[in-house]
Amino acid sequence: MSAGEDISMRRKKLRYRAWHRGTREMDLVLGPYADAHTEAMDAAQLDRLEALMSEEDPPLLKWVMGQETPPDHIDREFLDLVIADHHARLAK
């Protein structure tokens, strides 16, 4: 597999995982984000998405909803991008 095919497959897998989280609420946050942004992401950005998606849904949802502050190991800058994208979609 070439590098281009490898990153393409990775994007496809991440989009699938974003829509099949286990909780509908997180599907509706991460699915549209992944659909809209993964094609333009490079490997480092995909790493950031993958790291965020490795978190469990209940705490992730609390962070997205602003109910709890994420722990220090969370890439807050990237989480803020996902949250802003979600709010923009809700505002439409």
Structural description of this entry:
By secondary structure, the chain is an all-alpha fold. The mean pLDDT is about 95.
Name its key features:
single chain; globular; 0% strand
Question: Gyration radius, to the nearest Å?
Answer: 13 Å
Order of helices and strands: HHHHH
What structural class do you assign from the helix and strand content? mainly alpha
What amount of the residues lies in strands? Answer: under 5%
Cα shape: globular
**Overall mean pLDDT:** 94
Characterize this entry briefly.
This protein has 92 residues and is mainly alpha-helical.
Topology:
Blueprint: H1 3-19, H2 24-37, H3 43-53, H4 57-64, H5 76-91
Helix pairs in contact: 1-2, 1-3, 2-5
